[in-house]
Amino acid sequence: MSNKFVWIKSPQKPWIERKELITTSLESGIDHVLDLNDGDKIHKLGDIKIISNNDDGDIYLTGFNGEGDGSIQLKDNLENSSDYSLAKKLKSNGKIVVSYIEILSKNHEQLAVKVGKIVDYIILVGKDWTVIPLENIIADLQKENVKIIAAVNNVDDAQLALETLEIGVDGIIFEPEDFNQIKKMAKLIENLSSSNYQLFNASVTKIEGLISGDRVCIDTASMLNVGEGMLIGSYSKGMFLVHSETLESEYVASRPFRVNAGPVQAYVMGLNNKTKYLSEVETGDELLAVDQSGKTRPVLVGRVKIEKRPLILVEAEYNGYKIKTLLQNAETIRLVSDKGEAISVSNLKIGDKVKVYIDKSARHFGMAIEETIIEK
């Protein structure tokens, strides 16, 4: 599942109350605000994108005048609607454009599809949402380069919109009433943005100590949990679940933010099923933390360390398919066993079963493709 997102519409409250709600939204990861009047004040609160029909906005808004939900003027020919013409003109001038469309009839639904083919975002507003209009618009625009956003009032409506047709809308926008509502919306997005990887139990077939190589250590800006790590491997089609350093040992304290990943040439799984070479990972990147059941969450890379360390080769086999990876040869480096427990590479034995991910697709520049590639 691709990442979902949430925007807010600046609440109709005195500035001091609005400021607190917008600040809470930003702290919850919501960094886009629809506001027509106070963009300068809001920008001072943090790194926030303003959606506005003013030239100083970050994303130009059409179809909304702040007096109700929508201001679309339809004519007999959809191409002559005021919203469509303005959006087309703005896009030709290189603007990032979002169109705000109230769905009152089949004609508005058709306009949303037509406008969606030229703008970057469309915000869909329904006075009495049913699933059908969203289904139609999502289906018609699924191959277009546009993000569909549903205007909602509560968490239940948000979940319905985000899961419609399994694909769902890309994002939601709402006018926050209180802090609790903001937290619930942010949590919903976090849960729906996670994906699950099917992990298999592969049998270890070879363990071999090697000479030193350049090893990559990934420090995240998140506290990782026991049972959680990253998918890493020498083969893009087969990766091991390498456990985070959340467990203490008699030699070193735990580093619950760290995954001691492997050598520079290995792959690591990032967002949207796209891999990176460990040598390419740097501060600010987003990677996937994966637990023993395959559930994922995005984590931010805070730092990467590359140091020369002795390595160990681990080979495992699942259903006749062998995969390999190189890891640092140290007691603190762990894989995840078939029982979901962390197992140190120093204690690993032939025949042990460990969690792996097998991908049927080949990789080209980190993206999964339908092509035959032999890795050995």
Automatic annotation (TrEMBL):
<keyword id="KW-0560">Oxidoreductase</keyword>
<feature type="domain" description="3-dehydroquinate synthase C-terminal">
    <location>
        <begin position="202"/>
        <end position="376"/>
    </location>
</feature>
<dbReference type="GO" id="GO:0009073">
    <property type="term" value="P:aromatic amino acid family biosynthetic process"/>
</dbReference>
<keyword id="KW-0456">Lyase</keyword>
<keyword id="KW-0520">NAD</keyword>
<feature type="domain" description="3-dehydroquinate synthase N-terminal">
    <location>
        <begin position="3"/>
        <end position="188"/>
    </location>
</feature>
<dbReference type="GO" id="GO:0008652">
    <property type="term" value="P:amino acid biosynthetic process"/>
</dbReference>
<dbReference type="Pfam" id="PF26558">
    <property type="entry name" value="DHQS_2nd"/>
</dbReference>
<dbReference type="GO" id="GO:0051287">
    <property type="term" value="F:NAD binding"/>
</dbReference>
<dbReference type="GO" id="GO:0003856">
    <property type="term" value="F:3-dehydroquinate synthase activity"/>
</dbReference>
<keyword id="KW-0028">Amino-acid biosynthesis</keyword>
<dbReference type="Pfam" id="PF01959">
    <property type="entry name" value="DHQS"/>
</dbReference>
<comment type="function">
    <text>Catalyzes the oxidative deamination and cyclization of 2-amino-3,7-dideoxy-D-threo-hept-6-ulosonic acid (ADH) to yield 3-dehydroquinate (DHQ), which is fed into the canonical shikimic pathway of aromatic amino acid biosynthesis.</text>
</comment>
<dbReference type="GO" id="GO:0102042">
    <property type="term" value="F:dehydroquinate synthase activity"/>
</dbReference>
<comment type="similarity">
    <text>Belongs to the archaeal-type DHQ synthase family.</text>
</comment>
<keyword id="KW-0057">Aromatic amino acid biosynthesis</keyword>
<protein>
    <recommendedName>
        <fullName>3-dehydroquinate synthase</fullName>
        <ecNumber>1.4.1.24</ecNumber>
    </recommendedName>
</protein>
<dbReference type="InterPro" id="IPR056179">
    <property type="entry name" value="DHQS_C"/>
</dbReference>
<dbReference type="InterPro" id="IPR002812">
    <property type="entry name" value="DHQS"/>
</dbReference>
<dbReference type="InterPro" id="IPR030960">
    <property type="entry name" value="DHQS/DOIS_N"/>
</dbReference>
